[in-house]
Amino acid sequence: MSGYTFTGKGGDFRMEDPQHSSGLYIPVAGNTGLRSAVSPDFGGDAKLDQNHFLIAPKSISNLHSDRDTRNFFCAYEDGIWSACGASAMQEAERFTDAEDKVVLEGGRMWQKVTRTDKKRNITAEITIFSLLDTPSEVMTVKITNDSDTETTFTPVAAIPIYGRSADNLRDHRHVTALLNRAKVCEDGVVVKPTLSFDERGHQINDTTYFVLGSGANGAKPVEFIADVDLFIGEGGTFLRPRTVLDITSSSWKKAPFNVDGKEMIGALKFERVTLKKGESVSFRLAIGATTDPEKDIANALLAITKAEDTDKIFEETKDYWNNLTNIHVKTGDAGFDNYMEWITFQPQLRRIYGCSFLPHHDYGRGGRGWRDLWQDCLALLLTDPDGVRKMIIDNFKGVRFDGTNATIIGDKPGEFKADRNGIPRVWMDHGFWPFLTLKLYMDQTGDIEILGENATYFKDALVCRAEKRDAEYGEDYGVVQKDKNGAEYQGSVLEHILIENVSAIYDVGDNGEIRLRGADWNDALDMATHKGESVAFTCGYAGNLVDIAKYIRLYADRSGKTTAPVAAELKELIFADGADLLSSPEKKRELLMSYMDKVSHAVSGDKEEISLEDIAKALEAKAEFMMNQIRDKEWVTDSEGNGWFNGYYDDNGKRVEGEFDTPDGKNVRMMLTGQVFSVMSGTAKEENVKEIIKSADKYLYKEGIGGYRLNTDFKALRTDLGRMFGFSYGDKENGAVFSHMAVMFGNALYKRGFAKEGYKALNSLYKASSNFEVSRIYPGVPEYFNAEGRGLYNYLTGAASWMMMTVVTQSFGVRGEAGDLCMQPALLAEQFDDNGIAAITLPFRGKEFEVRYINSGKKEVGDYQVSKATVDGKDMAVEDGKRAVLTAAEIDSLSDGKHTIEVYL
Questions:
Q1: How many structural domains are present in the chain?
Q2: Which residues pair with 129 in a beta bridge?
Q3: What is the pLDDT at residue 368?
Q4: 799-806 and 739-751 helices cross at what angle (nearest 10)?
Q5: 211-238: per-residue pLDDT in tens?
Q6: 465, 403 contact by CB (below 8 A)
Q7: Are 11 and 106 in contact (CB under 8 A)?
Q8: Which site among 171, 227, 375, 510 is 20 to 30 Å from 553 CA-CA?
Q9: Which helix (H) or strand (E) is 851 found in, with range?
Q10: What is the CATH number of the domain that holds 129?
Q11: What is the pTM of this model?
Q12: Which residues contact 343 (CB under 8 A, 6 or more apart)?
């Protein structure tokens, strides 16, 4: 058997011989900050944050080679066997007939591995999960004698306790060991270092790390070792520790005792066990890190003292994670339905893990970026919009008055910090994403009035889009923008949106497109800070302006207001127009700099009431100019007549995409991002979209590895564009199938009415993810697929939010429109089951709906229309045969509970 098969609720799966695949791991966490990664042999790490690792950090390169991690030994008279598979003998037997038989079962935040020692016919079943409300993993170990004769062994749990910052892997590794203080008690080993040595300096340590154990009928361990060197012994290893080989060694001691200044381990020896035929014995371990040891250690012990209690907690934990998401699909492909259970869960994983703290994600220190704040909201808006309103308003507090934003984001909602290093980097796309999220929020809730809510602005020393520093800024100023009177300035959400989007469209390069600066969405386009431009996101901002105008008019209709208060300094940017200005990059930059200089320290605080309709018209006029300029100047073709939009200019001000003559012949250079945003924004007309699809299929699509690559092979090290071209082609940002942009391409195609082509983009990612023989990943969409089709950077990717949003709102076509629920399916015939039914369950406006599409004739998309629709058996409105609509008022009049909508095609 190869790969995994789905087994039940929540995308649970099963696979044989997981040890034959490298790089596999599953996230295990609760709600109290302890975040773990667990490989099939229970390798991996566990941590609270960058400075508090319970088990030593593991990246993908050493996930399977490092052995200082969770283990459980059975010490026999003739040798040792690891229930986790981590012993020298078992490693030597791998890929031989003597190898253990191994079966893994996995699900959301848990893993169970059943391992059979063929020689002794002993089976170990180990399960790991994390307590929800206590920062502790729980491992349960059940050993069963399946042989015809009795067997005797000594059980030993062995979990090294790293207990310090990731920086200390090399930096002061020995010195920080000298800080360790271990107390060995009757339940296990508790370690609290005296100090923390990390980037924060030398501080009194406040974190306690522990390994606790409980045996059959709550029996406590009998002897312990807390010193790693003592446990391993001279010449020993974690795979072959001398104190387990010689289980009667005098190194084992009874509690209580203390150990100071050593590398620490929770080595717990239990009473010798004899099992008759068919008998079993179980053990439970709690492995945790806490700043409240009295409470959390007591709770962890309660969870592991009795086997029946531990089993109950495990089932409750599984139910919690399975019920955390409330969007479920039913199509003609059960594999896809289960796959979507993981897609809907991945945004929750990113909420917990940030962008770091899993083995592939060995960069950064755990925080989320500006983009993440907004894109993670996309998933929340579809699954649990309660509380998102405040979150959105809080997020706007990170906007600077020059249209850029804070880049250091605190742990609390709305908390943003000044960059102590003063790194002057601006991502030019950052102003684009907030309105995208705000728009989805207004559609899902009907809360257009949020545009009138007020929020503060962020302020630090970086001004004028990081080109200057505010000489008057000091730490006593704080991080909230002030007016000329020293009061904290507040502006409406609409004002924040206008500042972000309007300032960006004046920040142009010599070709008239918005400057690339430090990078756009593609962080690896980071070497064109002087003359680089992003046509791709110029399209994106132009599309934003059109949509902002639409929602400004909705706001006027809903609120009855005809004007809105806007910062006086901003008025000129909103209304500046005329061909002389709009077509002059130099004049645009001068106007922007004049505005930014005015607001570089204190803003006036003066506001003007401006006509909402006038603002909307001004935005539309600018958008039309931008789109026409791109249509006229940025369409490129190859020698065969294939066409697409150029997406970038390099640091020499030269167009990046098209067909170029090189010493090695003609080189076609095409990037996916420019096509995504030209299609999504409406810049690309219908004939352009058809040509883009044709060109993308020719130059970017590769069957079997996820579909649409991010770019063609430029065959050059482009230091005038970005570090991505230093990567091997087919990896990361240089030509990999980057799931996020591939999904967005699908989304854009669906939105423009190209359902079959949009489905192709999404289905290619699903098929590649599910083809375990190639992808070698558990269920879910990874950040990218490399040139061989292997999935990398699993779980923590914004692609999951976009895939969920696209499947729900475009493929199934169930979406909010200013608070109304609209159903306009774009499902292909193959997505319906044998009875011609496809269904989705999801929440909307506080109610739960199951939407069932009934396509009894299995008609293809484009061939079917909506003929009839009912909610709980009562007729619903159908518009032009295209969609069914349930108004916000009708939804609010429904009773609580689940409602069934049937749409006949």
A1: 3
A2: 110, 138
A3: 75
A4: 20
A5: 999 998 899 999 999 999 999 999 999 9
A6: yes
A7: no
A8: 375
A9: strand 847-854
A10: 2.70.98.40
A11: 0.96
A12: 780, 781, 800, 803, 804, 807
Locate 788 and state its tokens. Answer: 């061989």
> How many C-beta atoms lie closer than 10 Å to residue 385's C-beta?
21
- The position carrying tokens 């509380």 is 387
Q: Which of helix, strand or coil describes residue 774?
A: helix
Query: In a 3-state reduction of DSSP, which class is residue 757?
Result: helix
DSSP state for residue 828 in the 8-state scheme = -
Give the residue carrying structure tokens 């209690």.
309
What is the distance between the terminal CA atoms of the chain, rounded to a whole angstrom? 40
Residue 77 contacts residue 226 (beta carbons within 8 Å)? no
761 backbone dihedrals φ, ψ, rounded to 5°: -65, -45
Residues 697, 249: Cα–Cα separation, whole Å: 67
Question: Residue 883 corresponds to which tokens in the numbers above?
Answer: 């969609």
Question: Which residue ranges of the chain lie beneath pLDDT 50?
Answer: 1
What integer pLDDT is reported at residue 63 of this predicted model? Answer: 93
- 408 shares a domain with 268: no
CA 730 vs CA 60, 271, 526, 692, 743: distances in Å: 19, 54, 19, 21, 18
> How much is the pLDDT for 1?
45
C-alpha–C-alpha distance, residues 469 and 459, integer Å: 11
In single-letter form, the type of residue at position 646 comes to: N
Alpha helix (H) residue ranges in 634-682: 672-681
138 near 284, Cβ under 8 Å?
Answer: yes
Identity at 129, one-letter amino acid code: F
Distance CA(540)–CA(433), nearest Å, equals 9
State how far the Cα of 525 lies from the Cα of 136, in Å rounded to an integer.
41
- Looking at the structure, do residues 392 and 317 belong to the same domain, yes or no? no
The DSSP-derived string for 460-493 is -SEETTTTEE-TT--GGG-SB-BBTTSPBPEEEH
- What is the H or E stretch that residue 746 is in? helix 739-751
Percentage with pLDDT > 70 across the chain:
99
φ, ψ for residue 367, nearest 5 deg: -80, 165
Reading the block at residue 593, the tokens are 């700099």
Domain CATH number, residue 516: 1.50.10.10
Q: How far apart are CA 54 and CA 160, in angstroms?
A: 9
Do 79 and 201 belong to one domain?
yes
Which of 295, 322, 349 delimits the end of a domain? 322
What residue type is assigned to position 424 of the chain?
Answer: P
